[in-house]
What we know:
Bound molecules: 3-hydroxy-3-methylglutaryl-coenzyme A
Helix content: 25-40%
Strand content: 25-35%
Radius of gyration: 20 Å
Distance between the termini: 41 Å
Amino acid sequence: MSKIGIDAISFYSSHYYLNLDELARARGIEPEKYSKGLGQKRMGVAAPGEDIVTLGANAAKQALAKADATDIDTVLFATESGIDQSKAAGTYLHSLLNLPKNCRVVELKQACYSATAALQMAIGLVLRNPRNKVLVVASDIARYGLNTPGEPTQGCGAVAFIVSTNPRIISIGEYSGLYSEDVMDFWRPNYRDEALVDGKFSAIIYLKSLKESWLNYQAKSGLNYDDHAFYCYHTPLSKLVEKANKKLADINKIKLTADELLAKTKDSLCYSKEIGNSYAAALYISLASLLDNSTHDLTDKRIGLYSYGSGCVAEFFGGTIEPNYKAALDTAHHANFLQNRQSLTYAEYEEFYNFTLPTDGSNFETPAYDTGDFKLVGIANHKRIYQSET
Ligand code: HMG
């Protein structure tokens, strides 16, 4: 059976970020609480004119630059920051990127887990028709209330990856450990723009689901902690990932020094420390971070991947890195993007945070900010109007 996995991967976040030291000052909190206690440095802040479609289109344009877009017959758009109750966000993206019309486009939701559902569905579709390629886009804006404990764990980001046979980057393994439970750790009722969260409980359920999905994965695959060279976890905050990795080693009775444990996840956390939580995109941005920032040759190395979405659904699975993977990465583009972002003052952050589109469908033109190559230019007759800036 031929290998199936990720053939190209790129991420994007907002051009604007808030330094968490600046947020700490505004909230009268010691900056070390965010930098050391949460393990976060900065968070991406979406600008007016920027939403899951523009973030996703920016990521997908870059991923498609290394592929033949005419082969794409399915677009799966994973998000929990939905902009319409009916129309899939991916249909806008499909049009902005001029993807083939003979294509299916669907939106998927299950909190931060949905990109993994998309990946597994994509694998099934490619298995059925090996000539075709699936574009998976995960795009989210993480919003909690101003001055709430969740505020420093906000962020935004999108990742796009192409699933195909004989992938250039990573082949996905056949075993998945699964776990689902009906819990209220984090949710967002339709009438709210900000998530509601039971923060401490959410961390407990994240770790419990890690254990349960890992045990299920281990029972199916016979693989152990040491069979994976590095780990990528869903990353709401770096500190929780470090705790998760220690827990997994403990479950497996693996004795590692603190530095050896950190080395298993350090490179996967570079991007999330810069952009914050990107919900559905977070696990795959952490994979891009590991691939771009590791100084090791990852060829033939197995990577453990933990996907978690509140509510909750969890999946533990693995993938093996392909030879010559480096040539298919977007490392320089990602570094350049992060370096050229613009820092916001606290007041500018609050202005961006409080920006809302009209909720009565009235015509509206969004103010001009840097939103990459795509922009939500406004609303007309209840319709969102997007524009390609190139
Ligand atoms: P909090 O109230 O800030 O927690 O909420 P805290 O007061 O316990 O402080 C956090 C840590 O900072 C503690 O360390 C403190 O000791 C430390 P810990 O006990 O955890 O090891 N600390 C300091 N360290 C150094 N210097 C200092 C200092 N002061 C304190 N001066 C919480 C934290 C993460 C709960 C909050 O930010 C939150 O609610 N975030 C949103 C929810 C979340 O991210 N949950 C994660 C799991 S659920 C998930 O991943 C799903 C999700 O992505 C959504 C989805 O699936 O769609 C969220």
